[in-house]
Amino acid sequence: MEYILIIQSIIIILLIAILVSKNKKKKAETSLMDVYDGKEERITYSWKLDSARKTKLKGHLVLHFNLKELSEQRLNNPFAITPHHDTESNLRDMYYYMLNHPRTLLHAIEVVKYINRECSRNNVGELDKLQFVLDFVQEPNIRYNYDHDCAEIQHSKEYIRFPDETLYDRNGDCDCKSFLATILFHLMGYNVLFIISYKLGHAAICIEYDQRWQALLQNDKEDVTTEIDGRKYVYCETTSDHFRIGGISSDFTINDFETRIEFRG
Q: Which residues contact 58 (CB under 8 A, 6 or more apart)?
């Protein structure tokens, strides 16, 4: 009888130990989820308009980020969940995720509101306003950096950030910067093409083209414009500074981009 009681006592002690262990694990998981609760961080952006008309305009904007919300976006990024899916599929999943979670668009909306307000206040024309958006996503605001060099995205081989991730990290490669630009132009009401060249290992965007801009394009029209279903688009380089709308590297043309994903307003 004493032997049975001893065994029962041991079982009870083991059960208590398991329950305590599970409770500690649950508390640890909860603390990890709450680590960013209520924490905010300010990020400041400063940039200049690179105007074909020599228009002078400077931008200075401060955004406030909720770190818990940012962490949730990183956890729900398709490139973190399904990194081996094709880029186009993941990119569309990101777009629809943002439409279903409007808070993910709030900072991009703030950027667009600021640019619209400053351009209206300074009587800046349409092309210069669009250039001001392009200048915002170029360096030095958003530095160019390869995915595998970025600890904040776990040195991923291929990863496109949500706009909030790019805005907070203030760095990204060509596809991260291009997706941020896509969302900004799209929120301004413009049709946008996200274009990819796997041959070149490069991504960029095009915005719907107005014939009135032709004389102000940085490169020859044939190298930087394309057409889809009657809509004309012009190339925009998001990576480094000093590329204006229609500016493109001398190493390729718009026709080298085989994948084109249209985001219509």
A: 46, 47, 48, 49
CA–CA distances in Å: residue 122 to residues 56, 59, 119, 130, 193: 9, 12, 5, 14, 29
Give me the tens of pLDDT residue by residue for the chain, a chain 265 residues long. Answer: 444 444 444 444 444 444 444 444 444 434 434 445 668 999 999 999 999 999 999 999 999 999 999 999 999 999 999 877 789 999 999 999 999 999 999 999 999 999 999 999 999 999 999 999 999 999 999 999 999 999 999 889 899 999 999 999 999 999 999 999 999 999 999 999 999 999 999 999 999 988 888 888 887 788 999 999 999 999 999 998 889 999 999 999 999 999 999 998 7
**Domain containing residue 126: CATH number:** 3.10.620
Number of structural domains in the chain: 1
Q: Is residue 4 part of a domain?
A: no
| Residue 87 lies inside a defined structural domain of this protein | yes
Alpha carbon distance 261, 263 (integer Å): 7
Partners of 197 in the β-ladder: 202
106, HSE (Cβ side, Cα atoms, 13 Å): 11
Host domain of residue 219: 40-263
Residue 2 in any domain: the answer is: no
